[in-house]
Amino acid sequence: MTKDKFEQIDEQVEPQEQSTQPGSEEQMQPEPIYDDKDYVGSGKLNGKVALITGGDSGIGRAVAVAYAKEGANIAIAYLDEHEDADETLKAIESYGVKGVKFATDISDVENCNQLVVDVISEFGQLNILVNNAAKQFPQEDFLAISPDQLMETFSTNIFSMFYLTQAALPHMQKGDSIINTSSVTAYQGSPGLIDYSSTKGAITSFTRSLSANLAHQGIRVNSVAPGPIWTPLIPSTFDSEKVQKHGQNTLLERRGQPSELAPAYVYLASKDSTYVTGQAIHINGGDFISS
């Protein structure tokens, strides 16, 4: 049986590690597939403006590129991975739309407020908010999770969603969309990522609760729950042995590529999903099957 492009790139992954989070895409061997040339846009997001956190690499980059293919102008927020951000902007603009980058730490409420101000100043509107940025710090010993680690994980992964959504909502209207990146760990847990999994569980509840709160305004809120996806967070989190085996325990026996998630984010942002809110789309290679 001929192997597809995703299977082929999975076999090329070498043992590797990165020393800092959230990691750099350009250092990965091989680099993830973020622009699937088989995916052709059809104008589903023409005239829209999207803000994507963690948009410089990984899932965020793939979503930004897919949105650009669909005609949206894009603002990406990232921490300090400037080379990755420049590469993402280049990819976005190659599809004839406008892309702008903002380097900021979204764990701080004032930074989130300023980020939305800057996006509105640049584009005059905001229609799609993708809360995607995250950090994770493995600890096999539960007692080793320090208060500082706990605060950093929660501040980046869930507090920022509150901050950004509160800042963005006054600029959003009926038909606009909020999409949160959850995780398979929210549903099956992870013994070595207890604080991270807890934030992802919080994101799931945040999504369900906020969707009910905003339903009368016609603003939809949904989530995507990825499984093992080949992003910079993997080599910057795990040792080289775990990196090489990443995703092998799924039903599809491989890791996923960021481009394999992007169409779900397009669906949730577009008119294709006008009757969908408070939901989670599970993209995990069969790692977890939702009841």
From TrEMBL:
Gene3D superfamilies attached to this UniProt entry? NAD(P)-binding Rossmann-like Domain (3.40.50.720)
Cite the record's Polar residues compositional bias ranges. 15-27
Q: One MF term in GO for this entry?
A: oxidoreductase activity, acting on CH-OH group of donors
Query: Which PANTHER family does this one have?
Result: NADPH-DEPENDENT ALDEHYDE REDUCTASE 1, CHLOROPLASTIC, NADPH-DEPENDENT ALDEHYDE REDUCTASE-LIKE PROTEIN, CHLOROPLASTIC-RELATED
Q: What is this protein called?
A: NAD(P)-dependent oxidoreductase
Which organism was this protein described from? Answer: Planococcus donghaensis
* UniProt xrefs under Pfam families: adh_short_C2
Q: Which residues form a coiled coil?
A: none
